[in-house]
Structure to design on (614 residues):
């Protein structure tokens, strides 16, 4: 089994990428600035405390003075209160920003997904999109809200502590600072290794998710192929790998903190030794208070140094998520309306319906060529004129290009060359929504949304009444089975409609298309999964539904297409025969053979059934 490999990102930190990402978080910029401000104040308080300690020792203990204690206590308490308020505020703001940023990016991403064309979904696996939408976005929210802000705090803290130390005593300050590079090097060394182990963990994790996904989706197939044992074996190798890389990461993290603390203690020891000697020497240049302040500074400053290393590693590892989310947000749909068209007719989210022209339904393919972005030419110089109200049937072998033709009509894809005109106008001069609002499309693999049957049908036209919904179901002969369900029209269909059979889903999606009263109707093997009897009943409904509408029917059972105004036989993206049923039979070509074969099979089946009944 091959799993979609998580790409390896060993690149350096890409500041431009983070800047772009932060640009996307515009509504939260104020939040982020407020967070940084409160953090700065809190870091400032952290630097003030040792100074207060110094003052207390030098004044009240070694200085032996008694005055102004109240004033001192007031300042100490005030600083403490200020810091408490700041910490409370920034934790609250960070939490809010994290959730808000998550939601905001998800909204942007979902918006983008609605906008992207079919071709994006052809090339991008669903699992990829889902993990972009869920784990990547939450990771980014976390990194930006806590990581970037923590980075700011640490940097600011180191800076002002350094300044405070230098102002207190340059020689001792240099002593403390001399340990800093050592800690920085150690931190970088460890974080690099921790990062690469985590990367390994995540890579394996995404392989495991992939394996789960395939295991679930392919459960039935695995059983029929007797692959269970082999699959389990492969899965166990993956989990083993995950375990060993997780342990490595944990061991490294466990070693890292004690080492930083030990190095920090070395600095404290040096300060104590040097400063202590000075305190007790005759012309000592260090007071006890200053020494105490330095001890506090030297123990305090190493935590932010190690956390800067950790945050950089974090940013580096989230960079992959950032890259994927940003690249998704920046993907441009392949099919889009030009600015002039949007100006006139609006876009999908803000349509200007008042400017929309009426649609008649004349459709013309004018020397259209087309290939999918991954494949070779499907249509080559294809020409076709369909008059409004005509029913066109497409027949031909699987893969001959029938669905491609109707997908082009629906503007799910656009011609690579040539023009498709609707009512005489290149459809790219109208908005996508205008066309798709006038389309009824029933697919071979219909998709229902989770919700009730009634709600699903109402998606066709939101203001449809219950009566209209029921009439539509009756028209497509779906009412019988719906009423047999426990809750009738209010039965939940499950995710993707998976509590119904494919045939039932086809009937519902047919009713959904019907209720929209579309000008153009497309049935792409829409009745392939219903039984012959239902199909015959549907036949009547179809012919009623299609009158007055331009329609395309793709069907394998030729009984369905017999009454079409125009039947096209498609072979390798070309029309090889065309005409009405009677005309094509006369031609005695491919259609004739196909029909004769099916007719014989149907005939045989019927005589068998007749025999069985005897
Ligand atoms: N989304 C797609 N991406 C790439 N190639 C495709 C896609 N859909 C169809 N094709 C290819 O285009 C050709 C025509 O397919 P299609 O129009 O679906 O045929 P039909 O509906 O007649 O069975 C086939 O060779 C098929 O492999
Ligand atoms: Mg098809």
């Amino acid at each position: 089994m091959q799993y979609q490999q998580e790409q390896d990102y060993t690149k350096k930190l890409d500041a431009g990428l983070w800047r772009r990402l932060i640009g996307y978080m515009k509504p939260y910029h104020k939040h982020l600035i407020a967070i940084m401000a409160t953090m700065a104040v809190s870091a400032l308080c952290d630097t003030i405390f040792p100074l207060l300690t110094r003052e207390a020792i030098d004044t009240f203990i070694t200085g032996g003075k008694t005055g102004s204690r109240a004033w001192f206590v007031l300042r100490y308490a005030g600083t403490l209160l200020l810091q408490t308020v700041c910490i409370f505020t920034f934790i609250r703001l960070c939490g809010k920003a994290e959730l808000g940023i998550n939601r905001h990016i998800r909204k942007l991403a979902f918006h983008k997904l609605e906008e992207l064309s079919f071709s994006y979904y052809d090339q991008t696996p669903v699992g990829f999109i889902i993990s972009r939408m869920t784990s990547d976005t939450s990771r980014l929210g976390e990194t930006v809200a806590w990581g970037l802000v923590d980075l700011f705090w640490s940097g600011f803290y180191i800076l002002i502590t350094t300044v405070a130390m230098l102002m207190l005593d340059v020689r001792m300050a240099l002593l403390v600072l001399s340990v800093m590079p050592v800690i920085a090097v150690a931190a970088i060394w460890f974080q690099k290794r921790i990062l690469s182990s985590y990367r390994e963990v995540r890579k394996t994790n995404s392989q495991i998710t992939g394996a789960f996904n395939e295991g679930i989706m392919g459960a039935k197939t695995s059983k029929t192929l007797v692959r269970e044992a082999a699959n389990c074996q492969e899965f166990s190798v993956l989990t083993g790998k995950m375990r060993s890389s997780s342990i490595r990461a944990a061991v490294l993290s466990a070693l890292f903190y004690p080492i930083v603390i030990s190095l920090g203690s070395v600095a404290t020891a040096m300060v104590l030794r040097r400063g202590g000697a000075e305190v007790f020497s005759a012309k000592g240049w260090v007071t006890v208070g200053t020494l105490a302040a330095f001890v506090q500074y030297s123990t305090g400053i190493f935590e932010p140094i190690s956390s800067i290393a950790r945050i950089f590693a974090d940013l580096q590892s989230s960079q992959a998520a950032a890259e994927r989310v940003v690249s998704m947000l920046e993907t441009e749909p392949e099919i889009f309306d030009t600015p002039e068209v949007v100006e006139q007719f609006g876009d999908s989210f803000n349509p200007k319906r008042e400017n929309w022209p009426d649609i008649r339904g004349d459709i013309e393919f004018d020397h259209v060529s087309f290939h999918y972005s991954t494949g070779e030419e499907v249509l080559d110089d294809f020409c076709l004129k369909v008059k409004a109200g005509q029913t066109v049937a497409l027949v031909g072998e699987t893969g001959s290009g029938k669905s491609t033709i109707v997908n082009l009509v629906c503007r799910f894809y656009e011609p690579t060359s040539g023009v498709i005109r609707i009512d005489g106008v290149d459809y790219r001069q109208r908005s996508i929504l205008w066309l798709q609002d006038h389309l009824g499309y029933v697919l071979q693999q219909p998709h229902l949304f989770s919700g009730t049957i009634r709600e699903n049908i109402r998606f066709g036209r939101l203001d449809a009444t219950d009566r209209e919904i029921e009439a539509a179901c009756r028209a497509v002969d779906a009412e019988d089975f719906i009423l047999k369900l426990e809750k009738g029209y209010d039965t939940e269909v499950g995710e993707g409609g998976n509590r119904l059979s494919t045939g039932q889903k086809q009937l519902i999606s047919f009713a959904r298309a019907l209720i929209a009263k579309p000008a153009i109707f497309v049935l792409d093997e829409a009745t392939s999964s219903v039984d012959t009897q239902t199909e015959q009943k549907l036949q009547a409904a179809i012919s009623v539904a299609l009158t007055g509408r331009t329609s395309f029917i793709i069907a394998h059972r030729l009984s369905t297409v017999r009454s079409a105004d125009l039947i096209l036989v498609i072979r390798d993206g070309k029309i090889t025969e065309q005409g009405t049923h009677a005309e094509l039979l006369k031609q005695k070509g491919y259609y004739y053979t196909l029909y004769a074969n099916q007719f014989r099979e149907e005939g045989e089946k019927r005589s068998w059934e007749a025999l069985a009944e005897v």
